[in-house]
Amino acid sequence: MASSSPSPAERFIAGILPENPIYRQLLGMCPTLAVTNSLKPALTMAAATAFVLLCANISISLIRPLLKPHLRILIFTLTIATFVTIADRVLAAYLYEMSKQLGPYVPLIIVNCIIISRCEACSSKQPLPHAVADAVGMGIGFALALSSLAFVRELLGMGSLFGYQVLPSSWPNWGILVLPPGAFLTLGVLLGAVNAWTARRKARVQSN
Amino acid sequence: MDTIVSLFLIFIGAALINNFVLHYFVGICPFIGVSRRVDLAFGMGCAVTFVIGIAATLSWTLTFYILRPEAPLSAWLWNSMGADPTTVVDLSILSYIAYIFVIASSVQFVEMYVKKFFPSLHRSFGVFLPLISTNCAILFACLEIMKNLQGGDQLWGLHHALALSLGGGVGFTIAIVIMAGLREELELCDVPKALKGPGIALLVAGILAMAFMGFTGVDRGVADAIRTLTQH
User: Fold this and answer.
1) Which among B23, B136, B205 is the nearest to A111, CB-wise?
2) Mapping DSSP to helix (H, G, I), strand (E, B) and coil, where does residue B18 land?
3) CB A49 within 8 A of CB A142
4) Least C-beta-crowded within 10 Å: which of A70, A74, B25, B79?
């Protein structure tokens, strides 16, 4: 984004693929690798992170005049910690099995680099509409990245999608993909694919 | 004897078997970002181990005495205010905020200490220290300690908490130093353009994680061996 202050619509579109938090900015990889065994936990985690991101961006944007430079990171983290506590308790109350499956990764949203970097780069300097558009765009981008990873891992690793058996039982499940090494390998391959596609698109645009 | 064995198993479990980086996926951001040179990686690993020890001590103390259900200090405060003494005082809703506060302050304290007493060290990697405060590994260690302070029976003491956190720090250091060594070699290789940098680092980390999976079951084996040895 070359312009000095992108409009809310530009920020929204930017968060989805051009500045996708995982594939382009490489932030927030801890939950990406951990919960993408299957699609349901991945989407739950994406929803929780998007909720915290939106609320944190709105709060920080509203208290912009009160932020002191040397205390701002602490204020960001405390705000995010409050919203993560809310999200964690709501998940434990209404989706208990999913909360148990996600385990310690919901509180780890607090130190998810995406949220702190968005607060630092955008919502502590921009008014409310920009902050909301940025949060929604980044949230959708994060959900897309998580679900792409979980799609590959669940389909090839267990032959199912959302728990429904999709591939025939003759498919030998690539068990490595649902184990920790598979997370690294899948993310590496998908990252390479996104980089290659982006480079090819840039070359095509430049040759026109 | 049992305590020493259980401490050893917790330490080895956190360092090798359930390695914080390669099994629990915490601390990935510095793992991918800082692992280009072995000396920087080793420094980062030492700094993380140091901070994780301090943060684990503080958070264990806080959780044991104030935050967990039926904690002594908060129960005493509740009773001394003349309230109903049969209620269970449970302040664990404040855990996450308390932990992040503890971690941010300990990182700040460590940075001030290093700046004052080891200025050359501070010059060489002082910029990484504030990054450690957003390191998932430290918060993860605090959360694991909290998980083992919830139930009524086997509550973890400070020695268990330190064994887990220092084991996690040592495991992080091992993983990041191995990764840095591998990436230094990869600099000289012909990597496809799309995979340069983080892409190939992730693929190498995947193979490293596969290698570390070979440690599965080592804690059971060691525990059985010690048990048979001490029975004689």
Assistant:
1) B136
2) coil
3) yes
4) A70
Q: Are B72 and B203 in contact (CB under 8 A)?
A: no
Residue A52 to residue A44: CA distance in whole angstroms: 12
pLDDT digits (tens, 9 = 90+) for A111-148: 888 888 888 888 878 888 888 988 999 999 999 999 99
User: Do B100 and A108 make contact, defined as CB atoms within 8 angstroms?
Assistant: no
Burial class (CB in 10 A: 0-12, 13-18, 19+), B68: buried
Asked if B140 and A187 come within 8 Å (Cβ–Cβ), the reply is: no
CB contacts, 8 Å: B139 with chain A: 107-108, 110-111
Torsion over CA of A25, A27, A31 and A34, rounded to 10 degrees?
Answer: 70
CB nearest A191 (choices: B100, B133, B198): B198
Question: Is this complex scored with an ipTM above 0.90?
Answer: no
3-state DSSP assignment of residue A165: strand
Buried b (16+ CB within 10 A) or exposed e, A63-84: eeeeeeeeeebbbbbbbbbbbb
